[in-house]
Fold this sequence. Notes:
Blueprint: E1 6-10, E2 15-16, E3 23-28, H1 43-57, E4 61-66, E5 88-89, E6 94-95, E7 104-107, E8 110-113, H2 114-120, H3 123-130, E9 136-137, H4 142-151, E10 154-159, H5 168-175, H6 194-202, E11 208-210, E12 216-223, H7 230-239, E13 243-253, H8 264-269, H9 272-290, E14 295-296, E15 298-302
Parallel strand pairs: 3-4, 3-10, 10-12, 12-13
Antiparallel strand pairs: 1-15, 2-14, 5-6, 7-8, 7-9, 11-15
Helix pairs in contact: 1-9
Amino acid sequence: MKKGQIKSPCKKKLYSNKNKPILxxxxxxxxxxxxxxxxxxxxxxxxxxxxxxxxxMAGAKTMLIDLRDLKIGVCKECYSxxxxxxxxxxKLNQCDCYYFKKDHMFVGDKIVPIExxxxxxxxxxxxxxxxxxxSFGERDDMWIVYKALMEADGVIFxxxxxxxxxxxxxxxxxxxxxALDGGVEKLWGDGKNLKNSIRYSKNPEVEYKxxxxxxxxxxxxxxxxxxxxTPNLMKACSMMGMKILPMGxxxxxxWYKDKTHRSDAKNSKKDGYTLSIIEYIGKEIVEEIKKSQRxxxxxxxxx
Length: 303
């Protein structure tokens, strides 16, 4: 085996959902909102709800994660410094680049929730700390996504295409999945000590957990620019060991026929062909899971 190649010596799966209800997680990455500038929700989230409804009709539990509602920080690319610099705690469902599930403030030698700091400080002191990036610990909601994906049997991604690329909310979330795809738990809490990471990575016996391995995924995209998102998204999911549902892609292109764009959503929501594929995805992803052992995750070594 050539240096740098990855092998998978651990054939035994790490996690089993066999005795749990089937869970399908839908992830909506559209930013548009009827409450903000666009004055409309993305059509993709409408499609996603239909797919999840079909999954429920097939006997699964479902969960919709709307990335508009979450505050997720960008990946800090620790892995590129050393593989073991990326860490993940399975009990907390957190990577150690982002420590806080709620906003915190550093008051003297104490770390307190923002609500507590507001009550104990004067208005002037509160905003001085709040506006100091070194004294304010901003919350990160990625733990919600981590927890859902760890528990899920299948994932349906709903997206649009923005300037022929992934929408920003999707890209930010997707890059953070690095922590599930090999994040080291053993070194959690050492303050990102690089020497520890190098020492860990040099050990030929250490293994990295690919936690999403074996989980099913499907894709929905609704755009004016065509779907250049799903092929790259499929590649990323495949790299993490996820299985792509056969016929698990639904794409709707809104051509620029209406100068005002006002008929786009209406036409998309009554497109029988697209709707039939979306219904198929929701139902079939559950049926495929029912036929599987529902065991996920493997270990790998880096040679």
